[in-house]
Amino acid sequence: MKDIAELALDVAVSSGASYADCRVVQRGIQALAVKDGSFAAVSSFEDEGVGIRVIVDGGWGFAGVDRLDSDSLGEAARTACRIARASSRLRRQAVRLAPCPVAVGEYRTPFERDPFEVSLEEKMDLLIRADEAMASVEGVTTHEASLEFVREHRLFASSEGSVIEQVLVQSGGGMDATATSADDVQTRSFPNSFGRHQVCAGYEAIEGLDFAGNAPRIAAESVALLSAPPCPTGRLTLILDGTQAALQVHESCGHPTELDRVRGDEAAYAGTSFLTPDLVGRFRYGSEQVTIAADATTPGGLGTYGWDDEGVAAQRTVLVDRGLFRGYMSSRETAADYGWLSSGAMRAESWNRIPLIRMTNVNLEPGQSSLEEMIATTEHGVYLETNRSWSIDDRRLNFQFGTQNGWEIRDGRRVRLVKNALYAGRTPDFWRSCDAVAGPSEWRVWGVVNCGKGQPSQVMHVGHGAAPCRFRGVAVTAAS
Fold this sequence. Notes:
By secondary structure, the protein is an alpha+beta fold. It has 2 domains: about 1-225, PmbA/TldD superfamily (PmbA/TldD fold); about 235-480, no CATH class. The chain contains 10 helices and 23 strands. It starts with a helix and ends with a strand.
């Protein structure tokens, strides 16, 4: 891999690049699923390639290639330089990069059991037992359990002298139980919705989820939701579980603090941001209970690594400090425009995509409360679990979320299961209404595996640390 990178950089520099970097990526993905008692999927995917990024005459160029012979690598490097020269004619200003120390080193995801060394028989047995446990609950009509594992071997090298090797390993899985009646369909998921929960860890993370042990509960909840009353409506106290809090952070804090969106670079596809640079250090984003940080060093997070795809070291960047807006996730280029250093948030989906500013692990820091304390001190409200739907405008201001499960709270107690809950709000008003966040014992890192951005589109895996949290006076209703 080092020889490949060295060749690509040599050709790029000799072709006129004032800066060049190269990513050599080998990726393997294994996916398994059991649905309604049958094997639904057993698949394995592998690819390998090189992405070459250059600056020529103040403009960016990029080319990727999956043929690793010297002729193909050389042609890809020259193509990147030709693209850069063409783009430089249309640039508003020459690309400038914030300084970055030369980095030489290695990073590997720590794990106990290599998921790619665990037999298919053991994995399928786990899925079969979970599927059977869901099927044993009367009233469940469809049930599915799945696993996915990812391993990426990456080498980054730059014309500035950085040479970094990283091996990142992800393990994830999930279950869905669906119950139907003549006029309704209800689904409960575990441990998260939209396919699975995923972390940077080994097979021990899957064993810790206890699929078979949790399967009867989520199946029973899907059936119970069919006869549950609709969620109450009004301005209510709202308590979110950790999974829904994580998605709320993702959509209404993670995306608006990506500096390329702020600059308008993503306006055509992903949108912009209401968090403009003039607000840094003076805008009240949330209450005193709200501290949010982008932390690429969080153990287990899908946004955890040693260095980003520009060779910038992983770090913790405070975005919101006790409610006050403090900063952004940035790249070397976007940070240079403001005289800042990069936050180390540049990542690419694979070798054939150019790096973009992506969330690392955007975490709502733990508070001092607990879920039970929040419930006990709520006169009337709802406790909502597991995302079902979401919608948010392209500036990340106005939103609406729906959840799979809900509990009405009266006088400090859960009194009944409710269904089809929706809540809506405006990002700053919502986070300013937060009056409690659970503490470290209930805080955990959740994986989001479907974060889309960029043209051509890239789907990135990102992490969010969160715990149950409470908000006052939120608009709550029930979907029709």
